Amino acid sequence: MTIWQPNDDGKQDITSHDVFTKGTPHNTFKNLRDNDPCHWTEWDMGKGFWSITRHADILQMNRLATIFSSAQGIRMEDQTYDEYMARRTFQETDPPEHSKFRRRVMNAFSKPVIAKFEQQIEDICNELLDEILPLGIFDATDRLARKLPMRMLGQILGLPEEDLEWLVAKGDELISNTDPEYTQYVLDKMQTDDYRMMPFNSPAGAELYDYAKKLMAIKDAKGEQSGILHMMKKPDKHGNAISENEFRNFFCLLVAAGNDTTRYSLASGMHALANQEGLLQQMKHGDDALWQTAPDEIIRWASPTMYFRRTATQDYELHGKTIKKGDKVIYWFVSANRDERVFDNPFTLDLTRNHQLHIAFGQGGPHVCLGMWLAKLEVKIFFREFCKRVKTIEPAGDIEYLRSNFIGGIKKLPLHVTL
Fold this sequence. Notes:
By secondary structure, the protein is α+β, with helices and mostly antiparallel strands. The protein contains 16 helices and twelve strands. The protein has helices at about 25-35, 55-60, 80-85, 95-105, 110-115, 120-130, 140-145, 145-155, 165-175, 205-220, 230-235, 245-275, 280-285, 290-300, 335, 370-390; strands at about 40, 50, 70, 135-140, 305-310, 315-320, 320-325, 330, 390-395, 400, 410, 415-419. The strands form four sheets. Strands 1-2-8-5-3 form a five-stranded mixed sheet. It has a three-stranded antiparallel sheet with strand order 4-12-9. Strands 6-7 form a two-stranded antiparallel ribbon. The longest helix has about 30 residues, at about 245-275.
């Protein structure tokens, strides 16, 4: 049984954030996949770009990092060179620079290291579920999905518990900066360029940077020299250290990306449980094999990061079109993860589906998501603990989607559960 079939007319403007407030326009993406998989997309807010919508094409192009560069920005927006240099994180660099930066923290986010946090994640999940599930009716995004990722990231980064709510709010201002519910500086409605040198073009970036500076000063005063943040600032074997600007942008990225994408994966999974018959029972009786594949399928279904942009460094032929040097290219992961050429019944959440197929983490190239193992472990433990306690789950009102064509998610999810 499918959870939800898209009902858009197949001709929606995928550059419009407002279009996505009704959910992802999957009929439009299917139309592009079937009829124009390398589609030139005009854009009123800047230069047009090529929309790449098929799974196989994105997987292949992800591997071609020298042809399709990240070093001119990863979002649709045009940037001057100065803006790019001021805002960039390691996501917006190419190898070998990207590889050097990544090596500083990759061990801290490796699968074996993340696995050691399983008990902590389970404890946080159980604490949240003990508090919220007895309410019976609640907004599952706000009361559950929003809480777990930042509390976990807080433990990994060594952040004070009392600061986490503020950090979540600032992370929302950054990565959800096209939704007026989360920021008064809405990206496509601003009449000023005062913040163009700040991460995500948002003043929240400056606030987070000030917070990080004070936090590191406190840690240094206490003699605390361990953890991911100190690992980032430590000079490499050649004595090279990252700049203050690089550290600021990395901290902002951790706060924003480390919370929102997992939040919306959890919310999408709970939405599926409330709407797809038999899914809850399947989870309840799931064995180890099912819990190996289920997290990836939930993340495929959610596809919270809907696209990343690249810029062509040379001409490239695809489906009879010529992508010219300097052209912007958008990889629509949210489309690739519903590609019928790869996924049977893509609008059904199949917990036993081959978990190696989806590309929600940007698989295939050097930019595969650093937090992949943490996200998968959080999703696994949350739903494993959730389904143990819940007898029934059903919708309790209308859902609301984030106003964004970059981050996709259910920002309000009213549910009714019985224990």
